[in-house]
Write a structure and sequence with these properties.
Rossmann fold
């Protein structure tokens, strides 16, 4: 077991409507090799503001992992302060901006939330986030729904505004010079495998991992293989 001094500082960035529970399996599984903390992404309404807050609260240098919206934010942090990041993991995310169609969908959801019709993630929406094999898993679905209700409507609206304004970051990826893991559920509907193949192809030396029988919430759906991939990533030599 690694001593406390040898543990890697690790900042974990949750996705839309997610909190520390998204990373709970990894906090437990990687506790011997990482001094991990989960950032609170509920307070700001832009990726630059989120990045500034994360950087202000993070150690001087750290490993960085983000899932979905957290992956968008991780890319923003790499644009702002790449010298702070020892290694990078992008999970179930994209380097692209929203399409006009996706922006229209998000505006519709925002309108519903403003009308008081925010319900978090309901059972009807779970198939968009989870693999078909996991939709009937009551423990998992309860974890997801409780998480989204804890985050709540106001933070959801702030996060949606941040997501909708994100840039196309594909041009920034070739400048990343740290050990990078790109991971997703093979059956992720929200951010499909092809988007991760694109990211991995643009980051020099990146490692691509597709998790079987897994949708968008890989850290919760398949915690053991995801944690194993993160452990291998943490064991790679860090950036100088």
């Amino acid at each position: 077991m690694a001593s406390a001094a040898a543990k890697t500082p690790l900042v974990l960035l949750p996705g839309l409507l997610c909190d520390q529970a998204l990373w709970a399996p990894q906090l437990a599984a990687l506790g011997d090799v990482a001094e991990a903390r989960v950032a609170d992404l509920t307070r700001d309404e832009s990726l630059p503001a989120m990045a500034a807050r994360v950087l202000a609260e993070a150690p001087a240098r750290f490993a960085l992992a983000g899932l979905s919206m957290g992956g968008y934010l991780a890319q923003e942090i790499m644009r702002r302060s790449p010298e702070r990041v020892l290694r990078l993991a992008l999970l179930d995310t994209s380097a692209r901006a929203d399409t006009p169609e996706r922006l229209a969908q998000r505006r519709g959801l925002i309108e519903l939330a403003h009308k008081g019709e925010f319900k978090g993630i309901t059972p009807r929406l779970l198939p968009q986030w989870l693999h078909p094999d996991h939709v009937a898993d009551e423990t998992l679905t309860r974890t997801v729904m409780e998480m989204t209700h804890r985050v709540g409507r106001d933070a959801y609206l702030r996060q949606m505004k941040a997501i909708m304004a994100r840039p196309d970051g594909r041009g920034d990826l070739p400048r990343i010079r740290v050990p990078t893991l790109v991971l997703c559920g093979r059956d992720d509907q929200a951010t499909p495998l092809a988007l991760h193949e694109e990211i991995a192809g643009l980051i020099p030396g990146a490692t691509l991992v597709a998790i079987e029988r897994c949708g968008h919430l890989s850290t919760l759906e398949q915690p053991e293989p995801v944690s194993a991939a993160l452990r291998r990533w943490l064991a790679q030599p860090a950036a100088a």
